[in-house]
Amino acid sequence: MFQYVVERWDQIWFSSWQHFSLVVQCTVLATLIAVVLAALVYRSPQLTSIANGVSAVGLTLPSFAVIGLLIVPLGFGVVPSVVTVVFFATLPILRNAVVGLAEIPPTVVESARGIGMSRLRTLLQVELPMAWPIILSGVRVSAQMVMGIAAIAAYALGPGLGGFIFSGLSRLGGANALNSVVVGVVGVVLLAFVLDLLLIGLGRLTTPRGIRVQH
Description:
Belongs to the binding-protein-dependent transport system permease family. This protein is mostly helical. 84% of the residues lie in helices and 0% in strands. The chain is built from ten helices and no strands. It has helices at 2-7, 9-41, 45-60, 63-74, 78-102, 106-114, 119-152, 162-170, 177-206, 209-214. α5 (78-102) packs across α7, α6 crosses α7 and α7 (119-152) runs antiparallel to α9 (177-206). The longest helix has 34 residues, at 119-152. It is elongated and about 70 Å long. It starts with a helix and ends with a helix. The mean pLDDT is 89.
């Protein structure tokens, strides 16, 4: 195993960076999409119900099947991988964003509007900062989930450590097959751990102290 890692260190490092970059960029995009959708629906019980229903149903879909279906219209490579990862990353964040915005006391919003803040300004400067800890918890769950889904995306020849896993599985019993699988799996676990630590640090930096104490 040690020799396998040393001989392929450059490839492992590059694949790890691709994997990490794919997950981070897709999670950022998913967060933006989820927050915008939540801001549009959280004041309507009917729309909130639909958003929660979509999130619940979407999370039951097998990621492998979704990637397989996307290969037909999008082909192989980065595009189906990005679409799949963004889709699954959006779902937990959307649910948490809706909950976080809906739980803000109406009196707080009324006070902000009472001092002359516009609806958009109230959302950006009052509601979203207050809901941010709950939204961020959804981002952490989402990031851990899609770290594994990004590995499955290698089925569509997507970037990342999944290539080591599928390569090893396709030739089990052959030379270095198990080493390839172990490198891929352990690499994904380590990246997930690193990303979660970074998100914890982000939460400490971006959450106002008063709100952090309340949560």
